[in-house]
Amino acid sequence: MPLSAENSPLLGIQFVDNRHKPKEAKQRRPKQDHEFHVQTSEHRRNFIWALFLSTVCLVAVYVLKNAPTLPQRSGTSASKRADTNYPFSSFRLSKQDGINAMEKSANPLARDVMASIEENAKPNHSHPKVSPYTKVQTLSFQIYTGGAPAYLTDELTGSTKHNHECKGLNSYGLPEDSNTLQCYLGLEDTALDVQRRLGIMRDAVDRAYDVSDQDESTLKIFLAPEFFFRGKDGAFAFANEEQVVSTGECSDICHILKGLEDIAAHKRFENWLFLFGTVIGSETLPTEDAYDFQFYNFAPLYRGFDPATSKRIGKNFIVPKRYVSNIDFLTPLRHLTNKSIAMELLDEQDPSVAGTLMNPHSVGHKRYDNEMWAKYKDELSSLGYTMIEYGWFYMDGIAFSVEICLDHLVHRALMTYMADVVTGSKTLVPSSANDSVEWVGIPRNQAQISLVSSAGMDVTVSSLALANGGHIFLQDGMEGDVSPHSTYGEDECQPNEFEFLGGSQSVKRTAVVSATDVTFEYEMNMNFTDYNLYPAEGSRHWRDVLKGVFSRETYPPKLTVYETVNITSLEH
């Protein structure tokens, strides 16, 4: 059956059956027969050539679309190096070289095929690979978000007295890593409590804007500590959110999210990214145990935008925390085996001390209950929120990782990256740009910027998942009175590692590859300025503003504003 190549969707090949032309074949003269055989041979060659090119096309498109771009050693040509993380590691196909070669071919079918490859090999998403931002500035909000000490020690006499902040509250408990009794602070009117906390957050954001770099090519990142929103019992109740939604009401957590949305939705914050600490939520379970709850700890993350010119799509995110730390919750008095430390201050029979939520970690609950996030993922999407499930995301072409406290210590972002590599790089993470969200693969070069919101955590070298020259920014809610600094080799358990300390931390990691060594170098950014959030005197003294919602027996809230640093680039 002779075949001819004509214009068609499939490689330009169309099959033609010449058996339907018998009369024409009988009338051929010897010269025509010779020409017929020549044409038949040409058609067969075209067909064989097309089959060969079909195979090449499939391989080429696969390589061009899926082969990751890996960092190269200085002075080493990409064409001379094999990609050891890719199945076809014995060669690297250059699309342009292939097209140039085929353009020189005499076969027009080859030229058409390679032109098709060039068109189909274009990226299948519209988000920019090169970010409009070349620099980043971190503005860290330092405020103590831990439990208030239940009793205070007089520095002069050494005597102990009851902390007035905890009086009348039903939220006493003990951290697992301490013998110091504490209490959760919060207002009895939870709606007013939320309003007060949102007001303090807005004050911090306004102050940050006033002292920020106004260059539009600089991405500003506002970073707040873990546990900023938690309430008088240790968590804000979800309080049957489904019923709240059906009645058109707005719960405490609903008010928190709407309030944060309003802060970010402003023209002046078009070049800002906000990580507003975390929200602690609890949901009562239908059991006989009055203290049986599910717990949720999540970070609201927002991209600032001008609502007059941009949509809210791709601006609101939820980052669930996965692992429960032993300091995330206080263990209530009713669960303590040794209550003697509290009896001098509290009446055991007082019903006001019995309402503290259980400590999930103390009863073996090592992970937060993330079933709700999976259940309501589509609903969150319909409300304009995108879930960052794996700790990775893109924003305006910049690769980020984000972790909450213990998630950083247990290498969540790094482990996700490694697991994704060994399972075929199939994990999809959100990429936000141009008023839309797309789902793309985890960056093979790791994160250009890593964010950590914590309470009792430091940057951990072994947990970093940074691209070459990438930065990690951490804001803690426990060590705001500790000036940032680093040490090396002082930890007996880790004698050959850096330690980074301080309430606010900014660290850059650089890879060093030579003929004799492979290592990482670390540089802590010490170029920052501290700004008090509230004046030491006047009508808005910090102790007055924080009263009832944050402890005033620790340190005053402040902003640590870092000088801008360059955002490392990724090879594509």
Short description:
With 572 residues, the chain is of the alpha+beta class.
Q: Approximately what portion of the residues adopt beta-strand conformation?
A: 15-25%
What is the terminal-to-terminal distance?
47 Å
- Helical residues, percent: 10-25%
Given as residue ranges, the uncertain stretches (5+ residues, pLDDT < 50) are 1-32, 68-99, 116-124, 331-366
Radius of gyration: 31 Å
CATH architecture grouping of the largest domain: 4-Layer Sandwich
Shape: globular
Number of strands: 27
Structure class: alpha+beta
Mean pLDDT: 76
Largest sheet geometry: 11 strands, mixed
The CATH class label of the largest domain is Alpha Beta
Number of helices: 13
CATH fold title of the largest domain: Nitrilase/N-carbamoyl-D-aminoacid amidohydrolase
The number of distinct structural domains comes to 2
Keywords: Membrane, Transmembrane, Transmembrane helix
